[in-house]
Design a protein that fits this description.
By secondary structure, the protein is of the alpha/beta class. It is built from ten helices and eight strands. It has an eight-stranded mixed β-sheet, sandwiched between helices. It starts with a strand and ends with a helix.
């Protein structure tokens, strides 16, 4: 399963969610932000190299802490040389190797986000409880719908225990919403570029990420069953 983590607005915590979901799901995470990457740096080939045809996807994956990461380069020249149309050919061999790929999408609604959403089997929508962020999240939801990429879970990050916004968001997006409260442990773990589970295992955020992972696993089973039914209908004489 290839899962795009998106949200529209920057600073809502997409990279934090991506890294932690990769840890919870045993997935490889791809830093898909070509110009302002937030996941750990690598020591060898990176996504810029892969998208420019200079390296194979599996060769560029590194084990960083407890997570396998395909990092992104940090140079403008590397970003300019990257061919966005190669993103599908990048994530498919990773999916075959690992079974699950987390694609950390950039902010905005540009072509890079569109290509990554199109390459994914499903999406996780990440936002924070502010009007601009929620507005951008709903616009991203519309883009995902046009590309026929289902949003299977919404994450309301840096939130309080107020369920009003979470309930409304769940109705608007038509997907389960999980709230992650503003937590020093999450910020501390992200500063160290490590999943919360490995830095602060007693943090309440660990349970939230477990809940998100369970929701994704359930959606993954449902999507697989839908495809099997569709395939069976197609094969009927």
């Amino acid at each position: 399963m290839i899962l795009a983590v998106c949200g529209g607005k920057g600073g809502v915590g997409k990279s934090t969610v991506s890294l932690n979901l990769a840890r919870e799901l045993g997935a490889v995470v791809v830093d898909g932000d070509l110009t302002t990457p937030d996941l750990p740096w690598g020591r060898g080939s990176d996504l810029h190299d892969v998208l420019a045809g200079r390296a194979a996807p599996l060769e560029a994956v590194e084990r960083i802490g407890a997570v396998d990461v395909l990092p992104c380069g940090r140079t403008l020249s590397g970003a300019r040389a990257a061919d966005l149309e190669r993103i599908t050919d990048t994530v498919r061999p990773l999916d075959r190797q690992y079974g699950r790929v987390i694609l950390d999408c950039p902010a905005g609604m540009g072509a890079d986000v569109g290509y990554q959403l199109y390459s994914a089997d499903a999406a996780v929508l990440v936002t924070v409880p502010t009007r601009p962020a929620l507005s951008n999240a709903l616009r991203t939801r519309q883009l995902a719908r046009k590309l026929e990429t289902p949003v299977v879970t919404t994450v309301l990050n840096k939130a309080s225990d107020d369920d009003v916004i979470a309930d409304r968001l769940e109705r608007e997006v038509s997907a389960p919403t999980v709230t992650i409260e503003r937590d020093h442990d999450v910020a501390h773990a992200q500063y160290k570029w490590q999943p919360v589970r490995d830095i602060c295992p007693d943090s309440g955020a660990v349970e939230a990420f477990e809940t998100i992972a369970e929701s994704i696993t359930s959606a993954e089973r449902e999507l697989k069953e839908q495809r099997q039914r569709a395939s069976a209908r197609y094969c009927q004489p």
